[in-house]
Design brief:
about 200 residues; Heme Oxygenase, Chain A; two-stranded antiparallel ribbon; 2 strands; about 65% helix; about 0% strand; globular
């Protein structure tokens, strides 16, 4: 007879996710800056294409009923509509829809961790957009802070994610989902910024 898997909340889940994906996170950061997305509005427009691909692929996760039960308020966190508004602000056509992420519920949590974590780093990127004459209501909506601040929303997301009851197999899937999300973003960057 085997023991039933333990299902307890894990207050260190996000810390472990950060440690497990730090190399991937750093790699994405380096690729973004190497692409020089804030050198000109043209290059920033290409960055918006990357964002459109990534956030568009996650839209179904943000809309998922089960995930919204696990993470109340998730639907309101999607930045996809803001990315589309930013593209329109710059007079750019909306790219074709991308393939939605196909992930187990636990893997989806890893994808969402990656997406929501990027909102913290967006503070640095948002400052760069201002040099291009953009702002939170013009071309850089998806990078702008929430009126309540970035930190509050991140802490709330972390508390909800850490509070979920997951077994050992699901924990591994969450990590795999986060790493897959970083891989996906790297792929979008390389495709859009083919000239380096």
């Amino acid at each position: 007879m085997t023991a039933a898997p333990s299902l307890i909340p894990d207050s260190g889940r996000c810390k472990r996710l950060k440690a497990a994906s730090s190399r991937d996170h750093d790699s994405v950061d380096q690729l973004v800056m190497a692409a020089r997305p804030f050198e000109s509005r043209e290059r920033y427009g290409r960055f918006l294409q990357v964002q459109h691909r990534f956030h568009g692929s996650l839209l179904a996760l943000y809309q998922d009923e089960r995930l919204n039960l696990q993470l109340p308020g998730l639907l309101a966190l999607s930045r996809f509509a803001a990315v589309e508004a930013d593209l329109r602000d710059l007079g750019l056509p909306l790219p074709s829809p991308v393939q939605p992420v196909c992930a187990s519920p636990a893997q989806a949590l890893g994808w969402l961790y990656c997406s929501e974590g990027s909102n913290l780093g967006a503070a640095f990127l948002f400052k760069h957009t201002q040099r291009l004459g953009l702002a939170g209501d013009l071309g850089a909506r998806h990078l702008a802070p929430h009126p309540d601040g970035r930190a509050l929303h991140w802490r709330e997301f972390v508390a909800r994610l850490d509070g979920l009851l997951l077994d050992e197999r699901e924990e591994a899937q969450v990590v795999a989902g986060a790493i897959a999300a970083f891989d996906s973003y790297r792929g979008h960057l390389r495709e859009v910024f083919t000239d380096g």
